[in-house]
Amino acid sequence: MIIVTGGAGFIGSNFIHTWLEQTDEPIINLDKLTYAGNPENLLVFQGDKRYSLVQGDIGDRTLVTRLLTEHRPRAVVNFAAESHVDRSIHGPGEFITTNINGTFHLLESVRGFWETLTTEAKQSFRFLHVSTDEVYGTLTPDAPPFSETNPYEPNSPYAASKAASDHLVRAWHHTYGLPVLTTNCSNNYGPFHFPEKLIPLVILNALAGKPLPIYGDGQQVRDWLYVLDHARAIIRVLESGNVGDTYNIGGNQEKTNLSVVQTICSHLDALRPKTDGSSYSDQITFVKDRPGHDRRYAINASKIKRELGWEPQETFESGLKQTIKWYLDNQQWVEHVTSGDYRQWVQKQYG
Ligand code: NAD
Ligand code: DAU
């Protein structure tokens, strides 16, 4: 069996869906259930013997050690993190606690368990750390996309905390021999994406007749990857990645924020036309820029393609259509996540 952390969040829950579609190997999800963790993402697995959720913190060594010794997983996949850049600007403390200290405690718990294994089990064990392209900083318009050898130049508190966690993972391999793998992925989108992030926020604000906030001039570039392609990439790295290596994962789909928002509006115009005949793009509103806003991210994913045979199955067009359809079809999920704490966040960030 394997243990994932942060599996009730956006990418982790899509990973669990992909995992259980492919295999009967059991999976335990250790998740603190912060505002971003939503057990409803995994409702279809209620009563499924292959899946269980344990509410807890990756920094709780007693709990993590108990889980490891009781269940004896062959791998731990670490998704758990505070993940939203804007929140890291308002309050970086939680990012240091979970992304840095939490990863440290998790590594120590896993190392303690791993050291009790037989030589053979030690060799086949894996700790896979899920990280981000933001650790590499920002690119100028003509610079080549980030490869695994780019220097780390994180610019936001979120990116700095993820960079620190990557360094810890690297050190636990070099110093203690823990068999680690690290993945650095570009921007994901798809089902179960919490609507504080650009794509789900714009879909839901558009349908609610609210402004579609674009930071600054909207010419910042992100490299978008459909979340199920990311889940498939992580499974490939877990199966066949070279121990101690990092793998960059990206969609090769660079888009400006403004063009992403305009594309969402034109899909919605076709799928859910407004009664007054106007376009959703009339709701686009330019707002104050994010402090320290990185201008461009782009990933060179040639290593994972060459060594592990992974490449994305979805284009931005095909993935975005499925995503918009998912939000239109899952009103109940939307209603549940957009109540309570979420409203307070929107008020604080957008006024
Ligand atoms: P998310 O915010 O949707 O989910 C994070 C999950 O971690 C939540 O379920 C939350 O409850 C849980 N969690 C938070 N703190 C915890 C703790 N201390 N102990 C246990 N669980 C805790 O994030 P996401 O977008 O699914 O991202 C998952 C991982 O992938 C993160 O490490 C993130 O840095 C990385 N990543 C995200 C993207 C993206 O575009 N979203 C891209 C590349 C990498
Ligand atoms: O690159 C990978 C990263 O992608 C992950 O590591 C992060 O966890 C994930 O949140 C994401 O970070 P971004 O900051 O790129 O994503 P976000 O959806 O917050 O913003 C995407 C772009 O859109 C960014 O340039 C900021 C802009 N934006 C965002 C919001 C929420 C707006 O213009 N308006 C908005 O309201």
Would you give an account of this structure?
Helix 6 links the parallel strand 5 and strand 6. This protein has a domain of 233 residues: Rossmann fold (3-Layer(aba) Sandwich). The strands form three sheets. A seven-stranded parallel sheet has the order 3-2-1-4-5-6-10, sandwiched between helices. It has a three-stranded mixed sheet with strand order 7-9-11. A two-stranded parallel sheet has the order 8-12. The chain is of the alpha/beta class and 351 residues long. The chain is globular and about 70 Å long. The mean pLDDT is 97. The site of 2'deoxy-thymidine-5'-diphospho-alpha-D-glucose has 19 residues, from helix 7 and strand 8. The site of nicotinamide-adenine-dinucleotide has 30 residues, from helix 1, helix 4, strand 5 and strand 7.
User: Mean pLDDT score, rounded?
Assistant: 97
- The H-level CATH homologous superfamily of the domain at 2-189 and 227-250 and 293-313, spelled out, is NAD(P)-binding Rossmann-like Domain
Termini separation comes to: 46 Å
Q: What percentage of residues falls in helices of 4 or more residues?
A: 40-55%
CATH-assigned fold name of the domain at 2-189 and 227-250 and 293-313: Rossmann fold
Shape: globular
**Main CATH class of the domain at 2-189 and 227-250 and 293-313:** Alpha Beta
CATH hierarchy: architecture of the domain at 2-189 and 227-250 and 293-313: 3-Layer(aba) Sandwich
Number of helices: 13
Main sheet characteristics? 7 strands, parallel
Task: Please state the CA-atom Rg, rounded to the nearest Å.
Answer: 20 Å
Ligands: nicotinamide-adenine-dinucleotide, 2'deoxy-thymidine-5'-diphospho-alpha-D-glucose
Query: How much β-strand is present in the residues?
Result: 15-25%
Q: Give the helices and strands as they follow along the chain.
A: EHEEHEHHHEHEEHEEHEEHEHHHH
